[in-house]
Amino acid sequence: MIKQIEALLSFTTTKTLRPAVLDLVAELNENKSTTIQPNTESDLTVKKSHLIKDLEQIYESYTIERAHHYCTQLIKGLSKTKYSNYNDINLNRWKEYEDIETDSLWIFKNRDRSGAHNSKYWGNYIPQIPNQLLRRYTKPNHWVLDPFLGSGTTLIECKKLGRNGMGIELQKEVADIAEKNIDSQFDLVTKEIQTEIIHANSATVDLKPMMEKLQIPNFHFNIYHPPYWDIIQFSDSENDLSNAATLDEFLNQFKAVLNNTLPHLEKNRFFAIVISDKYEKGEWIPLGFKTMEMVQQLGHLLKSIIVKNFDTTKGKQNQEGLWRYRALAGGFYIFKHEYIFLFQKKN
Ligand SMILES: C[S@@+](CC[C@H](N)C(=O)[O-])C[C@H]1O[C@@H](n2cnc3c(N)ncnc32)[C@H](O)[C@@H]1O
């Protein structure tokens, strides 16, 4: 394929070049596969539909110089790969990653229910959150830490994407559910992916022995989905962040979790916090921004604030009319979003 595109460079007018481009497109269309391996000496595969779009761009060029420029770009994109330190997105083929979010507003209409995912655990997040973040901030075989594991959504996604994952969960019965969920996820990528669950308090657990046993020098990405303070009470334990008596106590408990887990994240790598605000006694409590400020004060670099749509919680289902009435009468807006704060570890 690359040789055929190189041959396009020998045409000196767009009129003579165009039929040759059409021949190439026809050849691609005859191929039943949706991906193409343009260079037999490399493993790189590209989406056929994107290759056809690239050829269309060459075809539509007004000048032969432009057409040659697009040919050269395409040859480069098909022969060389370019990666950042953080993921396995081939930057030379960046247009192919259409389903990877780069905007700060995320709207997901439906929850991903594929594989082992289910929405049975009250307070779990939609799998698209870890899916997007793992693909942006990790490479295959990297290690991911989730200190608020819940039903295991992050580790299921890790398994699907070929990342290793460690999760910490305070409640034994919830950790057991997570283990079953994760085990039932077919490992699509490789049998070598490891997932480890620790039943413990994330603020105090010593991760070193487990990390040494698994030969993990450091984690490559941490993802935190803490209780949104007391919106859902997860257990009776005083170590459970959902039982914090005050906002300050919640922030201090969360800070203790960060102080205990962030030292194991490699410096300059990213971590994400998924959290929302809360509404209490007629007042909007900016839990998200308070948490964000606390983390900034720890010296980490805020890289993005993502706002994600948030559907009606199970608790408010069938009460939408009532909440709309309350909002109209009480002068407030109903929560329909949550935040994902992206930080880069700086110390
Ligand atoms: C919002 S849920 C996480 C849900 C998870 N992302 C999922 O998709 O299932 C928060 C979880 O943190 C747990 N938790 C609360 N305090 C904790 C602590 N100090 N250490 C470890 N886990 C804790 C709760 O039991 C709960 O399962």
Number of domains: 2
Number of strands: 12
Poorly predicted ranges: none
Distinct small molecules:
S-adenosylmethionine
Architecture of the largest domain, according to CATH? 3-Layer(aba) Sandwich
CATH class of the largest domain: Alpha Beta
Q: Please report the distance between the alpha carbons of the first and last residues.
A: 47 Å
Helix content: 25-40%
- What is the tally of helical segments? 11
- Strand sequence of the main sheet, in spatial order? 3-11-12-8-7-4-5-6
Q: How would you describe the shape? A: elongated
Tell me the Rg in angstroms. Answer: 24 Å
- Decide which structural class fits the backbone: alpha/beta
What does this protein look like?
With 347 residues, the chain is of the alpha/beta class. The protein folds into 2 domains: 2-96, no CATH class; 105-344, Vaccinia Virus protein VP39 (Rossmann fold). 36% of the residues lie in helices and 18% in strands. The strands form 3 sheets. It has an 8-stranded mixed β-sheet with strand order 3-11-12-8-7-4-5-6, sandwiched between helices. Helix 9 (247-261) links the parallel strand 7 and strand 8 (265-275). The longest helix has 17 residues, at 14-30. The chain is elongated. The two termini are 47 Å apart. The mean pLDDT is 93.
